[in-house]
Every structure is written in structure tokens, then in C-alpha cells.
TrEMBL record, chain A:
Pfam families, sorted: PALP
Role noted for this protein: The beta subunit is responsible for the synthesis of L-tryptophan from indole and L-serine.
Pathway(s) it belongs to: Amino-acid biosynthesis; L-tryptophan biosynthesis; L-tryptophan from chorismate: step 5/5
N6-(pyridoxal phosphate)lysine: residues carrying this PTM: K94
Official protein name in the record: Tryptophan synthase beta chain
Keyword annotations of the record: Amino-acid biosynthesis, Aromatic amino acid biosynthesis, Lyase, Pyridoxal phosphate, Tryptophan biosynthesis
Assembly and oligomerization: Tetramer of two alpha and two beta chains.
Superkingdom: Bacteria
Transmembrane segments: none
Cofactor section: pyridoxal 5'-phosphate
Automatic annotation (TrEMBL), chain B:
Gene source species: Nocardioides agri
Catalysed reactions, semicolon-separated: (1S,2R)-1-C-(indol-3-yl)glycerol 3-phosphate + L-serine = D-glyceraldehyde 3-phosphate + L-tryptophan + H2O
Entry protein name: Tryptophan synthase alpha chain
Active site: residue positions: E49 (proton acceptor), D60 (proton acceptor)
Any one Gene Ontology molecular-function term assigned to this protein's record: tryptophan synthase activity
Oligomer and partners: Tetramer of two alpha and two beta chains.
Length: 407, 259
């Protein structure tokens, strides 16, 4: 593991070209500086790196396999490889990030962690890491989301975390982040903020990337070992962008590999009801970084829309903004309907029910396959769909038996 | 010359701290906020901070969040803040805008500074950014003769305090607590070390805000600070009517004279 990962990384103040930086209240600057130093020291310490890799291997089930989805490939007309992050402990790539940040929290001697969560996946992962490391944990979650995702609230409860419902603003993910930051301003001497995605102020975009980059490092090595080539194209879904940057990093300097991020197109980009932040292309500052932001002409954040809670965020990690700006990666919207179709297709062809977030990457990859017959397309299957069965049940009108026996 | 610094100097000449009062523009509506801020001037505020309602204010506690949301829900638009500034500045009291950063960047930093200057505004208070990322604003403020008020916090290192105060004009905003507005009470003993560390770096006046709501606190803090900044308490008082707002202003104005 290295901190200077590629020519597309940040400078020492956290700038990825025109994006990133640290737009934060002065009260938090000392803590962010402390975190930056502690993280860089940890990454340079072979013992920390070895501990992290051991926990990932023995506890989280990493490395996840790279799987050739043959029946799906036949349908698509291209070789589709799935990086099976859905098989990780807690069901998604997010465990990598929280275990890294929680291990760092222990090293820094802090006793409490806070986290924000949208659908609850990062909250559950944070509660899991807190339980594993014996840390006190508070998770902020929009009150709209606590109602929509009661099962994840229950999981966090069972794991011993305190869940705080946030009523302010739109009562969703962005407001949960605001409230976690407010907590942190008052608690920073003993509390670490386990930020859930590769966004926010420096050092979070770089630090979260480094904790997640095993996805791409493993996938690249697996692809070479299993198939003797690097892929022609790679694809990931992008909300805040942690799974995507975790996949992309290993491939950024492979000029022959085309990189695609698929954002939530919601009900269709043209309807305005979407979360395709990069595609919309409006620059702004949100949650500590300059990036692309869904906003009105006064700079007020506007609400994003997606059937997938994990992509339903009006900002995006600043390194993605930069990769789009310098055209190293291409970001395209995928609608709710396309994602749900891809979810059903993967379930029926491969017996894998993906998270709806990951189904966006898959839908995008299926589009790429049409343009790239016979090519190798590597998709990050960032999470599993157990959590999404309520949405699927409603969307596909599932849950009734097909037949009954007897009278 | 900063009219804000002059207001602080005038208070100092009277042997007291300055009283700085905050309300968000557009709360309860644009006209109502003008009347309220004007009433606060009449009842003894030396400097006014007009809040610019923003969808994601991370330094504000529930009281100001709720007021700001009410303003946005009622249709507040960015240009309304300049109307409010113009009306309040017409009283002759230095009037600054306190705002999260994104609305300024969205309008265009230079254009925002021009509009603020044209409205008679004294400057900007920017609680969610630091001078490190504010080069554009610092340049625009200097070009338009506007105050730049950045914050220092109990967690700030001496080096950062020096960097921050060297970028300020008007006054320096010292946060009284580690926390957001309208929650914990600041104490004179708690904030005195920060004020001393700040004053060691600058001749600018130092105001204390965040966690200040009563006349007694204003009196205690006035022994250390050049100004006392109150926000959430005014927001809480306003729904009880202008007389309640004026009574709170008078209580605080007496407080800053009691040190």
C-alpha cells in the first residue's frame, strides 16, 4: 500500500487539480491535520499495514474473488468479470474503509467513532467495526431513511451502536453528514469521524481511497493471473464514489484500460429527478470539498433522486470530479429502470442478487458490451442485494406465491 | 478603514465591549427580518450580522437551522440578503453578512463582493472556511474595501491563529466553545485563553460568539473580549415579537457595559 498512488492523486493539501481541498470550519482543522499525519504515519508503518491486511483477510473475507459470469457474458456478447465485493463481511466493499479507519482510530487513542449513513450500509459497517475494536459508536441517519430502512437500524442497534435520527433539512444522507460534522466540532478531542465515502475534506478522499484500493489492486492481479490480460474496460457505480475509486486506482496508469463510472440517472436525467452529479457538471463546495454539486442558481443544494439509497447523494468525491475533468474516466447516468433490469438479469442468469447500487455498474457494463463485442469488461459488484429486497418486492411486485396446492 | 473596527473602537473608548447581533435574512420573511434587525440596532447593537440562509449549514445548531429552513421554505433568494443589508446598513450601523461558502462561490466571488459593497455591506463572516482556501475572497474583499472576518477556535494552534488573524479585517471571531451555535454556554474562563492567544497576534478587535445568550454572559465575557456576538438567542426571541427582541438586546447591551 502506498499513499502516492498515481499521477491522478492529490497534492499535499488535498487538491486533485481544481477539486478537493479542505473547506471546513477552523474548529476542525487541527483534527484534520492530526488525522492526516496519523494516517500517513500509519501507512508508512509496516505493522499497521500488516494488521489491516490480516483483519481484512481473516475477518472481512478479503480478497474477494474475481468471477467470470459466463451466462451473463453469453447474453452480453462480451466477457464480463465480476469483482465479488458482495461476498465481503457485511455485504459490501464498505467494510474495507471502516476497518481501516477504525484501526487508525485505535492507533490514535480515540475511544469513540461517529458516522453518517444513508440507507444504513455504512452505518452497519461502522457499527460492525466499532464492535470489533471495542469503540463507542454513534450513527447519524436521516429520519426519512430510518423509517425506510428500519432493518438496518435494527442491525446497528444489535451491534451496539447508537442511532440518531436527523430531522433537519431534507432528513436524508446530506443532512446526516451535516449532523455528524456538528457532533464532531463538539467532540473532536476523543472522537473520530468514520466518513463513509471518498468525499469530504482532505484527507478523507485520499484516505478512503487508500483503504478501498484493494478492490482494484486485487482485481488487476486476479485478472492477469486468471486471464493473462488487463481488462479493456472497467465499470463501477458512483454515488460518493468509494467503491469506484477503490476499483479505478490500480488502473489509472494503464492507458489501455477505459474507465467508466455510472451515476444514478434516477427517473431519467432529463426529468431532473436524478443523482448524476458529474453529468450535471455544476461546480460547488459541499461537505468540505470543491467538487460537482447538485444545486440551484443560488448555491442551495438540491435534492438528489435514485431508487438506490447508496447513490442518492448530491455531491461526489473530488477525485472523480478531477478524473472527469481531465477525461481519464467517463461518467454516465443509468436510470432506475435500467438498474432494476440489470439486477433481475444477474439474479436469473448467475444466481447473484446484486445491490441496486452495483446493478447500476452492471447496467452500464451491459451497454458497454454492445459497443465492445468480445472485449473483457470488469465490473465491481460492490454489494449484495439482501438489503434491497423491500425495494425489489415493491418494484417487481414480488412476494406472492406463483401457485397454491389444494383447493 | 473598516467601519466595523471603528464601532469596536467606539465601544472601547466608552470602556465596554461591542454588542454584535445576528439574525438570518428572510426570517420570518424578508420584511420581518429587516424590521427585527433595525429594532436590534435601535435597542443597542453596535454591529449587525445578517445570516444568509443555506441548505447545509454545518456550524449551526437546531435553533438557527430551523429559522434558516423556514426562510428557505418561504422562498428566500440570494438577492434578498442584499436588500436586507441595504436596509440595515442605512441605519449607519456596520452590517456584515455571515454565510456558508457555497452561495458566495455560486454567485461568483467577485460579483458577490461587488453586490455586497453596492448594498452598503461592511464585509463577510465566513464560518465554514479558513483563509487557506479563501484567496479569491480575500482578493475581492480587498478590491471592494470589505471586512474579512475569519474564525479562530479553542482547537486552533498558535501558528494557525497568527495565519488567520493576518487575513482578517474588521474583527476576529473567536468561537466561545468547541461546538455549534445555540447549544452549550461559553464561559469567560473557558474562552479567555483563546482570546489571549488571539490578541498576541493582532491589533484587531476580538469578538466572542457561539455559546453566548445572556446579559450575565455578555458581562463576564466583556472582561476579556472586545465584542460579544449573539445569534441563537435573538432567533429564539423573535417569534415572541419585536418588544421581546428589543428587551433581549437591552439586556445584552447592559451586559457589555457591566464588565
Amino acid at each position: 500500500m502506498t499513499t502516492a498512488s498515481s499521477s491522478f492523486g492529490a497534492d499535499e493539501r488535498g487538491w486533485f487539480g481544481d477539486f478537493g481541498g479542505r473547506f471546513m470550519p477552523e474548529a476542525l482543522v487541527a483534527a484534520l491535520d492530526e488525522l492526516t499525519v496519523a494516517w500517513q504515519e500509519a501507512m508508512a508503518d509496516p505493522r499497521f499495514v500488516a494488521d489491516f491486511e490480516q483483519i481484512l483477510r481473516e475477518y472481512a473475507g478479503v480478497p474477494s474473488p474475481l468471477y467470470h459470469a459466463e451466462r451473463l457474458s453469453q447474453r452480453a456478447g462480451a466477457r464480463i468479470l465480476l469483482k465479488r465485493e458482495d461476498l465481503n463481511h457485511t455485504g459490501a466493499h464498505k467494510i474495507r474503509n471502516v476497518l481501516g479507519q477504525a484501526l487508525l482510530t485505535k492507533r490514535m487513542g480515540k475511544s469513540r467513532v461517529i458516522a453518517e449513513t444513508g440507507a444504513g450500509q455504512h452505518g452497519v459497517a461502522s457499527a460492525t467495526a466499532a464492535a470489533y475494536f471495542g469503540l463507542d459508536c454513534t450513527v447519524y441517519m436521516g429520519s426519512v431513511d430510518t423509517k425506510r430502512q428500519a432493518l438496518n437500524v435494527a442491525r446497528m442497534n444489535l451491534l451496539g451502536a447508537k442511532v440518531v435520527a436527523v430531522d433537519s433539512g431534507s432528513a436524508t444522507l446530506k443532512d446526516a453528514i451535516n449532523e455528524a460534522l456538528r457532533d464532531w466540532v463538539a467532540s473532536v478531542d476523543h472522537t473520530a469521524y468514520l466518513f463513509g465515502t471518498a468525499a469530504g475534506p482532505h484527507p478523507f478522499p485520499s484516505m478512503v481511497r487508500e483503504f478501498c484500493r484493494g478492490i482494484g489492486d486485487e482485481a488487476r492481479a486476479q485478472c492477469l493471473e486468471q486471464y493473462g490480460v488487463v481488462p479493456d474496460a472497467i465499470a463501477a457505480c458512483v454515488g460518493g464514489g468509494s467503491n469506484a475509486i477503490g476499483l479505478f486506482t490500480a488502473f489509472l496508469d494503464d492507458e489501455a484500460v477505459d474507465i467508466y463510472g455510472f451515476e444514478a440517472g434516477g427517473e431519467g436525467y432529463d426529468t431532473g429527478r436524478h443523482a448524476a452529479t458529474i453529468h450535471a457538471g455544476e461546480r460547488g463546495v459541499l461537505h468540505g470539498a470543491r467538487t460537482f454539486v447538485l444545486q440551484d442558481e443560488d448555491g442551495q443544494t438540491t435534492e438528489s433522486h435514485s431508487i438506490s439509497a447508496g447513490l442518492d447523494y448530491p455531491g461526489v468525491g473530488p477525485q472523480h470530479a478531477h478524473l472527469a475533468d481531465v477525461q481519464r474516466a467517463t461518467y454516465l447516468p443509468v436510470t432506475d429502470a435500467e438498474a432494476m433490469d440489470a439486477m433481475a438479469l444477474l439474479a436469473r442468469t448467475e444466481g447473484i442478487i446484486p445491490a441496486i447500487e452495483s446493478a447500476h455498474a452492471l447496467a452500464g457494463a451491459l451497454r458497454l458490451a454492445e459497443e465492445r463485442p468480445g472485449q473483457t469488461i470488469l465490473v465491481n459488484l460492490s454489494g449484495r442485494g439482501d438489503k434491497d429486497m423491500g425495494t425489489a418486492l415493491e418494484y417487481f411486485k414480488l412476494g406472492s406465491p406463483d401457485e397454491e396446492t389444494g383447493s | 478603514m473598516s467601519t466595523t473596527s471603528t464601532a469596536f473602537a467606539t465601544a472601547k473608548a466608552e470602556g465596554r465591549a461591542a454588542l454584535v447581533g445576528y439574525l438570518p435574512a428572510g426570517f420570518p420573511d424578508v420584511e420581518g427580518s429587516i424590521q427585527a434587525l433595525t429594532a436590534m440596532v435601535a435597542a443597542g447593537c453596535d454591529v449587525i450580522e445578517v445570516g444568509l440562509p443555506y441548505s447545509d449549514p454545518i456550524m449551526d445548531g437546531p435553533i438557527i437551522q430551523s429559522a434558516v429552513q423556514q426562510a428557505l421554505d418561504a422562498g428566500f433568494r440570494l438577492d434578498d440578503v442584499f436588500r436586507v443589508v441595504e436596509a440595515v446598513a442605512a441605519t449607519g450601523t456596520p452590517t456584515l453578512v455571515m454565510t456558508s461558502w457555497n452561495p458566495v462561490e455560486r454567485r461568483g466571488v467577485e460579483r458577490f463582493a461587488q453586490q455586497l459593497h453596492d448594498a452598503g455591506g461592511a464585509g463577510l463572516i465566513t464560518p465554514d472556511i479558513t483563509p487557506d482556501v479563501a484567496q479569491d475572497w480575500i482578493a475581492a474583499a480587498d478590491a471592494h474595501d470589505l471586512d474579512k472576518v475569519f474564525l479562530v477556535a479553542p482547537s486552533s494552534t498558535d501558528e494557525r491563529i497568527a495565519m488567520t488573524t493576518s487575513s482578517c479585517r474588521g474583527f476576529v471571531y473567536a468561537t466561545g466553545i468547541m461546538g455549534v451555535t445555540g447549544t452549550t454556554q461559553a464561559t469567560a474562563e473557558g474562552v479567555a485563553p483563546l482570546i489571549a492567544r488571539t490578541k498576541a497576534t493582532t491589533q484587531l478587535p476580538v469578538g466572542v460568539g457561539v455559546g453566548v445568550s445572556t446579559g450575565a454572559q455578555a458581562a463576564a465575557l466583556s472582561a476579556y473580549a472586545d465584542g460579544v456576538i449573539v445569534g441563537s438567542a435573538f432567533v429564539r426571541a423573535l417569534p415572541d415579537g419585536l418588544p421581546a427582541l428589543a428587551a433581549l438586546t437591552e439586556e445584552l447591551a447592559q451586559g457589555v457595559r457591566r464588565a
